[in-house]
Design goal:
The protein is an alpha/beta fold. The chain contains six helices and six strands; from the N terminus they run ααββββαβαβαα.
């Protein structure tokens, strides 16, 4: 997960590049206020809310300075984008285009390849819950297999099997605790 501070740094740095344009300054202020929803992506194709900003006057083929969509609708300017995006709680995928962006460590630290890497808080919590349940199933399978082997009266392995059963029980207890935390988070998000 990319930290809030890193995303704020990226927004601040890009704002310094485009801050002379009042509409862009307004847009960057909005994105800063929505930093928890903002995700920097190399390719925003497929995002519900996407904005591509370009700052680069020295390119041979200049890029469009602003291109954005909200729910598949093309936004004509940053003001319209802010108005439409503020009515939603969906994630905002931002793609920045500026000179020497490959060398800008502050941008590379927050950049993900595409929209598939962007998840909302509830989607991320649900995925974590599924992963925890799968780990619990594996631990339960190990416990059940060890118990079955003990019932077959494999005396030579009793110590070893007891050890693995205790290990599986401890892992299940830890996973159960983590799963309860994730479920509490999901309930909190559902109540919003």
């Amino acid at each position: 997960m990319i930290s809030r501070a890193k995303k704020l740094e990226a927004l601040q740095n890009f704002t310094m590049m485009v801050g002379g344009d009042p509409a862009f300054a307004y847009l960057m202020g909005f994105l800063t206020g929505q930093v928890d929803r903002v995700h920097f992506v190399q390719d925003p194709t497929g995002a519900d809310i996407a904005v591509r900003l370009s700052q680069g006057r020295l390119t041979v083929w200049p890029a469009e300075p602003f291109r954005a969509t909200v729910g598949g609708v093309i936004m004509p300017n940053p003001i319209a984008f802010v108005a439409a995006a503020s009515r939603s709680d969906r994630q905002i995928c931002v793609s920045l285009n500026f000179e020497r962006q490959d060398e800008a460590s502050w941008y590379q630290e927050v950049l993900v390849p595409d929209v598939s890497h962007v998840k909302g808080p509830s989607e991320a919590a649900e995925e974590q819950a599924r992963a925890l349940r799968a780990e619990m199933d594996r631990a339960l399978d190990i416990y059940a297999e060890c118990k079955r082997m003990l019932e077959k009266d494999e005396e030579g392995r009793k110590k070893e099997l007891d050890y693995y059963m205790k290990l599986a029980q401890e892992q299940m207890r830890q996973l159960s605790s983590k799963l309860e935390e994730v479920n509490a988070e999901l309930r909190r998000l559902a109540a919003k």
